[in-house]
Design brief:
The protein is α+β, with helices and mostly antiparallel strands. It has two domains: 103 residues, Gnk2 domain, C-X8-C-X2-C motif (Killer Toxin P4, Chain A); 98 residues, Gnk2 domain, C-X8-C-X2-C motif (Killer Toxin P4, Chain A, 2-Layer Sandwich). The protein is 33% helix and 26% strand. It has six helices and eleven strands. The strands form two sheets. A six-stranded antiparallel beta sheet has the order 1-7-10-11-9-8, with helices on both faces. It holds the Pfam family Stress-antifung. Belongs to the cysteine-rich repeat secretory protein family. One of its GO terms (cellular component) is extracellular region.
Length: 247
């Protein structure tokens, strides 16, 4: 898979080149897909925000696994830490626990003393900030991943991808989970697999808007590619020519 920040997200350029190289070449499974740290707002070692952030990470890792999602805040005023964790809708609670715990530790390693950070793994996403961001579509944090290989019939294939993504969008935004997977037969004896998901702090209507936006970005990254993802802070989509989710 190749990876590229969305051009609409200037904050993504803050990611270190070292992390980008790790992701591009798949060095280790424990490495995140991507992470973003805001350097504009920081806290010191003795700041109450740091203690509140540690408590927040513990709370998210405890609350998220049963339903695959958690949000919350710890502290007051400028020391208040807000955060959410979202696990992929098809994974087990034990896998969710492991991913959220790992995400909480890794984002603090990658974003030391930063008051705003977001990190994505294949099985979960975690975000924290000193600003309350719940219930709003995040248009700022977004990146693309795609398969290096091309299909032979790009125009037809891209239309089939769009068809599947839009079909899954219609299922997801009316689902309590804001999540949908599916597959469709394309050509002879070939299956296309897809997954879409929104963060559960969004309304169904905002989930639909978010998914429409990321589906609309597929031509920017993934025309004619055998697999691709558009991943954001509020929703994400993925398609492949092989099964990658649990039924």
């Amino acid at each position: 898979m190749h990876l590229l920040p969305s051009s609409s997200s200037s904050s993504l350029r803050l990611l270190s080149l070292a992390l980008l190289l790790h992701v591009s070449f798949g060095v280790a499974a424990v490495d995140p897909l991507y992470a973003v740290c805001s350097t504009s707002r920081n806290y010191t070692a003795n700041d109450a925000f740091g203690d509140n952030l540690r408590q927040l990470m513990f709370m998210l890792a405890t609350k998220a696994p049963p339903i695959g999602f958690a949000l919350g805040s710890v502290g007051q005023g400028v020391a208040r830490a807000n955060g959410l964790a979202l696990c992929r809708g098809d994974i087990k609670s034990s896998e969710c626990t492991t991913c959220v715990r790992t995400a909480g530790a890794r984002v603090r390693d990658l974003c030391p003393n930063n008051k705003d950070g977001i990190i994505w793994f294949d099985e979960c996403m975690l975000r924290y900030s000193d600003f309350e961001f719940f219930g709003e579509i995040d248009y700022d944090h977004r990146f693309y991943m795609w398969n290096r290989d091309n299909v032979s019939d790009a125009v037809v294939f891209d239309g089939e991808v769009a068809n599947l993504m839009n079909r899954l969008k219609q299922k997801a935004y009316i689902s309590p989970l804001l999540f949908a997977t599916g597959q469709m037969e394309i050509g002879e004896s070939r299956e296309l697999y897809g997954l879409v998901q929104c963060s559960k702090d969004l309304s169904g209507g905002d989930c639909k808007k978010c998914l429409e936006a990321v589906i609309g970005e597929l031509p920017s990254c993934c025309d004619g590619k055998r697999g691709g993802r558009v991943v954001g802070g509020s929703c994400n989509i993925r398609y492949e020519l092989y099964p990658f989710f649990d039924a």
